[in-house]
Design brief:
Protein name: Sec23/Sec24 trunk domain-containing protein
Distance between the termini: 38 Å
Strand order of the largest sheet: 7-4-9-10
Oligomer: single chain
Structural class: alpha+beta
Helix content: 25-40%
CATH superfamily of the largest domain: von Willebrand factor, type A domain
Largest sheet: 4 strands, antiparallel
Number of helices: 11
Pfam families: Sec23_BS, Sec23_helical, Sec23_trunk
Number of domains: 3
GO molecular function: SNARE binding; zinc ion binding
Strand content: 15-25%
CATH class of the largest domain: Alpha Beta
Amino acid sequence: RQFCVTDVADICLPLPPQDLLLPLEACRDAALELLKLLPALFASTKRPDVSLGAAINACTQLLEPSGGRLLLFQHTLPGIAPLKLSHRDDVRTYGTDKEKSLFSPADAEWAVLAARMGGAHICVSSLHFTAHNFVDIASMASLARTTGGQVYLYPDCVPEQRDSIASKLHADLSRNLLRPHGYEGVMRFRTSRGLRVDQYLMGNIKQGDVDVDMPGVDADSTFAVTFKHEERLEDGADACVQCALLYTTADGQRRIRVLTLALQATSAMSTLYRFADLDAHINVLMRKAVLSSARSTLHQMREAIVSSCVDTLYTYRKSCASNTSAGQLILPESLKLLPLYTLALTKNPLMRAGTETRADERAALMAQALR
């Protein structure tokens, strides 16, 4: 049966959630029939307007009692309230101070909805299909970034690319649906004396003195955490860091996963640089830059990354290689590729200057960088 709710401004469910949500095993045939019917269901419609906000609100009401996962497919801008969006991708703003507004939601209501879905443990993954048209991924990506989901972008969706896009979509959907997934996650980092958790660099930046809600966490989820050094640590003593993640499996089992790491404290800068992790360093720089996109221009983001690279190598030269010739480039063995990685990051479409990378593509890359 098909239920039609005409009042999109004040959406409601035609039946209680428990009557609309059914186990897949009980309705597999009906679900397959619906999937086959979807391409032709509205093929002859003469109204291209999309009421995406009302559909998301209905799904939120449907999943609020139980939590769960939501896949969102989008091809055109939602032109009907609520959560109506309009075209705001103006190439004339690229490289200016106004460009940073393209990487934040156009309306604060998107952040409110994301917080509501996160509080109900609803994990949203969104798939966006474009044919050189603007779909405002920056606004809708806030749902995935807040709830632990993933953003997928399929550019150049034209008939000539149907087979390649279909193969990519099949692979992405298979991975998204079949990979191990945890529900209702709660994560917290703890440290030994002398250290303090500073920030969680995830979909949205969070301060370190709180439990972090993770409506969805999967096998591909990653996050970065920064620490502050508050008290003196004895040279050679262990400084411990512990991460605890409480989550529910797809089978309904409540589990806790605990990872503990002991790091040896040192007062020697040469030892600190010898054991530096280049990949982790670059990942933290990238996440910090992306999370500053709401208040910094792309130029400022690139400059911050380059300045961090210069400061890191200058400190090494000053502390560990001060007797070498001033014209000689001195790099620590563990960070000898840091200048190359820094240059590659600033030249990546994520932060590259120019008009070649459009706002939607950059917003999708930003969401992916925080995964």
